[in-house]
Description:
The protein is mostly beta strands. Among the domains are: 249-323, Thrombin, subunit H, CATH 2.40.10; 335-562, Methylamine Dehydrogenase, Chain H (7 Propeller); 624-719, Immunoglobulins (Immunoglobulin-like, Sandwich); 727-809; 823-952, 2-Layer Sandwich (Heat Shock Protein 90). 15% of the residues lie in helices and 40% in strands. The strands form 18 sheets. Strands 52, 53, 54, 55 and 56 form a five-stranded antiparallel β-sheet that branches. Strands 62-68-67-64-65 form a five-stranded mixed β-sheet, with no helix packed on it. Strand 18 (217-223) and strand 19 (226-231) form a beta hairpin. Helix 3 (727-788) packs antiparallel against helix 4 (792-809). Mean pLDDT is 86; it is low at 1-44 and 955-959.
Amino acid sequence: MLFSRLTTSIKTNDKKLIKQRNPLLFLFLLLTISTSLSPQAKQIDPFENTANLYSIVQDKKDFIWLSGQNGLYRFNGSKVINFSHNNKDWTLPFNWINSSSLKEDELVLTTETKGLWLFNTNTGSTTPIKLKSKTNTFYDAIHHKGKYYAISLHPQSLYRYEIATGESKILKKNIQNNVLVSSEKRVYFNDDTTLYYINSSDIEPKLNIITEINERIISATSNGDTVIIATKSKLYKLSDTGRVTKKTTQSPTSVMTISNDKKSLFTIDLSGTIVKRDLITLKEHNNTFPTVEKLRYEALLHDNSGTLWLVSHRGVQLLTERTVENHHATFDTNYNLLETEVYNNDLYIGSYGKGVKTLSSFNKKVIYNDNRINENLSEKALRITDLLTINNKLYIATFDGLWRYDNKTNSTHKIDLISNGISFNHLILLKLVHVNNLLYIATDEYGLLIYDLNKKEIIKHINRASGLISEEVIDVLPLTNGDIWLATALGIDIINNTTEKIKQIKNQTSAKFQSLVLADDKIFAATKGDGIFVYNQQGQQLSHFAKGINFNYMSLIGNNIYAPATPGLFKITPSNYQISMVTNTEKYSFTDSPLLYKNSVYIANNLGILELPRTTENLFHPKVYISKTTVSGKSYLLNEAISISNSNDVITLELASLDYRPGATKQYRYTLNGNTWQQINSNQLTLTGLAPGSYHIEIMATNSLGQWSNNKAYTEISVVFPWYWTPQIRIVYAVALFCVICFSIWLFYLRNKSIRHIYNILQNDINDYGKTSMQVKRNLTVALTLLSENKMDESKYLLQQCLDNLNEQQKAPEPNDLNGNLLTVAIPFLAKYLHRKYQTKLTFQFDLNESELQYELRADLYKVIFEAITSAILIGSGRSFKVVIQKFKTKIWLNISDDNQSFINFNRKINIDISMYCISQIANKYNGSINTFNEQGNGSQLILSIPSINNYLTPRNPD
C-alpha cells in the first residue's frame, strides 16, 4: 500500500455553486459563465493509501523512483508501477526496501531481509550484490569509484565491496550511523556525533575524522566535490580540498536536497519552513514555496521541472513555487462573481449583490465598500455585471440598467436608455464596450443597444427583428472598418457597417461563444467547452485549436491573449496559436476578463483578485517516453523494437511526458511512417490490425502548461509477412514470373519463325508449280492454234517442250509413301533408291512382327524413315544409315543412325525444314517423343518412341 496522497502545494477549493431561484434568463447566463469551484486540474492521486516510504530518486531519464516497505515504485507523471514480491507482473525477490541510490541506469537497493541488489531501470531486472556479511539487513548503500559502501544492521557496520575482485571488507564495526554520502574523491559516514571520511584514492582505506563537527548529525547531501551536513543548529559545507564552511540555522533541519540545476540547497526545518540557500555561500535566498506541515520528512527531491517532492510517513507531497498571488475578496452573496476595472488609479470591484468595492492599496490588501457609489444604487443594481471607465467616469452595467459614477462630484445616477419611446432602463445588461464615443451595450434578452455619449441617447437598437440570430448578446467587438461582431447565445452575428445586413456564423459545435478579441488582424472567438475558433475579418474560419478547453473570457494584453478557462489561465500567441497554461492558476474559477494594472495582470475569480507578473516563463521541454510497452498481454518497461507475427496482435504503448508540475492534462499525438499527425485521446496508444511491413512511430507530448515539447519518443514496429508473401519469396515470384514471360515470348518467337520458314518453303514450291503450269498452259494453247493451222512441226515442238517442263518439275516419283506395301518390302526398295540416287548405304533390322501393327502406324513409320534419311542426306553429310524397329516395354522404338553428325541439329527450333516438321507432327500424333544423340566415331542417332502400342496393334487371330 503506497502514498496516502499526491497533492499540490495549494489545496483545491471544493465549494459548489448553488442554484439560485431567479426567473430571469440572466441566471442561466451566469451559471454558464461561472465555472465550477472544484477545479478539474487538481492532480489525481495515482497512489494507493500506503505510507512507509523511505527514499526517492530521479533517474537519468527523469522517471521518479520511490521505495519503502512495499517495494519499489516508478512514477511517470500519471501512473505508478509497483515492483514487489507480491506483484506477479513486476516481481522482485523482496518487498521491504530501506534505501535506493543511483548508479548509471541502475538503482542500488538495500533490503530488510535479502541483502543488497541492483535494479535495472530499463528492464526491471534485478541482480544480487554478493557482499559477504553476517546479516542480510542493510539500510543504506552507495556506489563510488567501482566499489559499494553499505551500512548493515544487527550488527550495524560499514562494509565495502570491490566490484572487480568480489572482495568484501568491514571498514568499521558497531557504529551509530544515519549518514552515508560521497563526493568526487571521498566517502562520508558518521558514528553518532563523529563524521568520518575515506579517500577513494587510498589503496588501503583509512578512516579520517572531520574535527570541526562534534554534534549529532541529522542529514546530509552531496554534489560534485561538495558535501552538506546538517546538525541541530548548523549547516556545514565540506569540500574535497578540506575546506569547511559553517552556517547557523534558525530551526533544526529535518531533511535537505540539492536543486536540480546544482546551484541551490533546499532544506525543511522542524517548523515546516522550506529554505532555499545558495550552494556556494549557504546564504539564504527568497523562495515562494509554501510552509508545509510539521512532520518528520524521510526524503526530499527537487526534480528537473522545478517540483519539490516531500516524502514522509504520510506519503508524498508535491510543491511548486508560487508565481501568482491572489488577493482575497469574497462577499456575502449567492455567487462570488466579481468584475474588475481600473478607475482613478484604483482597482474597482463589482460584486453580485453587494455593489462596488475598492481595492485601493495593494500593499495593504485592503478591500472596502465605496458607499459613495452603493448608497445611490437600487437593490437590483447592486448585482453588477460589468464595469467600464470612460472619460474619468465609471459606467456600471447592472441587473437594473446602466449607471454612471463621477468621483469628482461623488455622484451616482442612472442613465436613461430610451429609443423610439421604448424604455430600456430596467434591463439586465451583460457587457459594455466603448469605441469612438459610442457605448455598445449588450443585453440579456433585447439584443444590442448603441448609445451616443455626446448626444446622450440611443442611436440604434439591433434585435431579432433586425436579423440577430439571438437577442442574448454575450460579447461585442466593433472593428475599425465599422463592422460589429456579436457573440450571442446561438452563434456569431456580423453587422456590416455599409449595408447594415447581418451575416450569421452559426455554432460549428454545441458550445456557446463567450468572448471575442481582435489580434493579429484576426478574430479569436472563445467557446465554452470547445476551445477557440479563429476567423478573418470576412468571417471565414482560419483555425480551431485548444479543443475541449472551457474558456470564459479573453483580453489582449501586449502581444499575448490572456484567456481564463477551466482549468487555469492560458496565454496565447496570436501569430502561431501557441497556447500555454500559466503555472499555479489551475485552482481558480475566473469571473472576468484579465486587465493590466501597475504592470501586472489582474483577474477576478471566485476567491478574489489574482495577480501575476507579465514576465515570460522559461519554456520547459520535458522528456517524452514510451514508459511501458504491452504486446498481446506481455509488458515491457520503456520501448524496444517490436516484432509481431500476426496483424491481429494488440500493441499498447503507455506514454509519459516527464513534467511533474500541476497543470493542464497533457496531450499526445503520433505519426506513422512520417504521415499526418494524429491526436491521442489519452496517454495510451493502442495499435492493432497493422498490415505486414515496417513502421516507424514518432510521438509528441505537451508539458504541464500545454506547450509542445521539443523532445519526442520513437519506436519501431515490424509485422512479419506470412511465409508465402515474405520480401524474399516475392523476389522469387518476380524472377519466376519474369522467366515465364521470357520463356513464353521465346516460344512464341520460335513458333512464329517456324511457321514463317515453312510458309516460305511452301510458297516457293507453289510459285515454281505455278510458273510451270502457266508455261504448259501457254504452250498447249499455242499448240492447239498451230494444229488448227496444220503447222505440225511447230505444234510438236511446243508439245515436246511441255513434256520437258513437266519432267523437269515432276521428276520420277520418290518412294515417299508406303503405297500399301509392307515395311519389309518398302524399306529395301528405299535402300536401292537411295543408293542409286545418292550413292548411300541403308541397312535395316526388324525385331517385331510387322503384322501386329496397323497399316496407319506402318505408313507413318515409313514416312519418318524416308523424311529423316533424305533430310540427313541433303542437309548433312551422312553416307551410311541403319534403321532398327523394335518393341520394348510397351513402346515401339524407331532408331535411325548414320555415320556422321546428320541428326544432332534435328531438335532445333529455328530454321526447321519440311522433313523436321513432318516428323514432329507424326510424333505428336502418337504422343511420342523424339531424341537425338551423338555416337562414338562421329555418328549420330534419331530415336522415336511411341507409347501405348496396344492402340495401334492389329488383333491376333485366336487360331
